[in-house]
Amino acid sequence: MLKRAFAIVAFLVVPVVVPGATPKCAAADDAARVGVLIYGGTPAGIAAAVAAASDGDQVLLVEPTARLGGMATCGLSHPDFRTFEGLNGAFLDWKRRVLRHYQQTYGSDSQQVIDCFRGTHAEPKVSLLVFEQMLAEQSGVRIWRERWLACVQTTGTGAAKRIVSASFSDRLGKQHTATAHEFIDATYEGDLLAAAGVKYRVGREGRSEYDESLAPETADGQLQGYNFRLTATREAANRVVPAEPPGYHREDFVGVLPLLESGRIKTVFGYPHACLFKAHIPRLPNGKFDINDVSRGLVRLSLPGENGAWPEGDAATRRRIFDAHLCWDVGLLYFLQSDEAVPAKYRDEARQWGWCRDEFTESSHLPPQLYVREARRMAGQYVFTEHDADHAPADARAVLKRDAIAMGDYGPNCHGTAHEGSRFGGKHTGEFYKSVSPYQIPYGVLVPRDVANLLVPGACSASHGGFCALRLEPIWMSLGQAAGHAAHLARVANASVREVSVDQLQSRLHADGAATIYMSDVRSGQPDFAAVQWWGTAGGFHGLAPLPAKPGQRGKNITGQYYEAFPNHAAELDRPLDAALAERWRKLAAELRLPTDRLPSADGRLSRGDWLRAAWKLHLRSTQ
Q1: Rounded Cα gap, residues 147 and 334, in angstroms
Q2: What is the pairing mode between strands 413-420 and 427-433?
Q3: C-alpha to C-alpha distance for 593 and 596, rounded to whole angstroms
Q4: Among 24, 274, 312, 405, which is 20 to 30 Å from 174 by CA?
């Protein structure tokens, strides 16, 4: 009891900073001038900072909390992707570094290396360490921590409107102002875009607006539910007993008892169903688990309907929502462990679990950020909808986007936007999980219609249904990487972000190992990667396989939510180039204004790869 009492005191005195709505701007105390200012040290913000700095820009990365990495270092250790073949760019670089960390720390044959799942599953403290190392390598990146947006100064109107500077408050109330040529909003909430007067939406569109099957019949203000991604362990030496959270009331949790007694809940921790806490598989290194909301479960950690005021709420409003979710998510486990009314079977199991002593040491071993799955969504130059992740007509591939600057392979998914009935045995509404083939993401989702020097990879331009496909950390990192390179191109050209050459941006991304289309057999780092990405993004690999019997057909399941490569998405460069495909490719080459008379002819021996390499060389010459 003495240990538990101290844990409560520690928890109560540790502040958790959450960004709030922007107060009235005061005079600045100091100033900084940079090429690119990024608000939000999320994975998208980190990727943007590394990209812009690697291009030669001076970058200021401003993070409103004390901890960089957003949800990727605050409990979301089990990232949402379907296949290893889809990993690319900044996300893949980060995960390769994670793998090297475990190899160097524990040995190449260690259990930790096995459990990190090729580097994709890291303990939060390791994710943070690697992110910090990536940023430290870039001498052009300066970081401001625990400074949140106070105001934005703009000039001009309409399409010529520009952000001039932004001011940020610190814990002492002092303001710090920075001027920049280009700005990037990498927050989950879209706080910078809102302060700059960019148009945005909160809530769901009606079905008729974009003809989306995932949309409700009429528009509303509902948001996807939030919860904490807790990091837990059963390792006794590293286990901390959960303390009673502030605001806890026993009567809030007794409703779980009939469910336990009925047997409808099989375990406290499990995967994927019939449990109270989803313990993602495979587990993390060193006996840790990423704990999440149970999709379509009888009891949920997410609280849709309780988060509606978050996107536009001030600091006090967001703090209230944060505390309510913390009390519910943590209080449920505390009740199961401590209340004598809980059947012994479940109480004994619950007591085997606790928080990790070596994680989140500054916030009583609990994540300092709430999982904000959706907040504001920019109304940008292109609105990504459910249809952008659908199959192209009669094709194994998704609809072609020649202006793509990123890709994803997970598919639209929503943990629910409202709740009906009791928290115990009721159900979330607005919940969906749609299988799709890997899809492309166009540049326009980053670009506002009305501010010339702002890019938005976090609260990007999408419908609710479309955003539910983009709201994943691997994709956010890809969008951040694209935003960083695009900001550099806009600054060098002294042009609006709307005028950035997508061809140039794609070339820079491909050189950086970032994919703009899913290719299962030619991955980042391989010699033909850039050529295959260029040709595939132009449409060269569309129409080679028919629509599968099951839309979004995946490969063989590996474990949990992870699969082998999507079928019919390979370049097959060693395969002989047949006459029909040669004719199609020649027509595409002509459309791309390549000198087709200098391309090789299909003779039965020429491979796809040989032809493509010849076309790639002609393309490179044309762009020099």
Answers
A1: 33
A2: antiparallel
A3: 8
A4: 312
Q: Is there a contact between 595 and 619 (Cβ–Cβ < 8 Å)? A: no
pTM, 2 dp = 0.96
Residues constituting the chain: 624
d(CA 501, CA 314): 38
Nearest to 570 by CA among 528, 611, 621, 599: 528
Q: Are 573 and 528 in contact (CB under 8 A)?
A: yes
For residue 271, count other CB atoms closer than 10 A to its CB: 18
Burial group, residue 553, by CB count within 10 angstroms (0-12, 13-18, 19+): middle
pLDDT in tens, 259-303: 999 999 999 999 999 999 999 999 999 999 999 999 999 999 999
**Burial classification of residue 56, based on how many CB atoms lie within 10 Å of its CB (0-12 exposed, 13-18 middle, 19 or more buried):** exposed
Q: Tell me the two tokens of residue 194.
A: 């809102």
Q: What is the largest CA-CA distance in the chain?
A: 83
pLDDT digits (tens, 9 = 90+) for 387-398: 999 999 999 999
Angle at which helix 43-54 crosses helix 473-493, to 10 degrees, equals 30
* Per-residue DSSP letter, 77: -
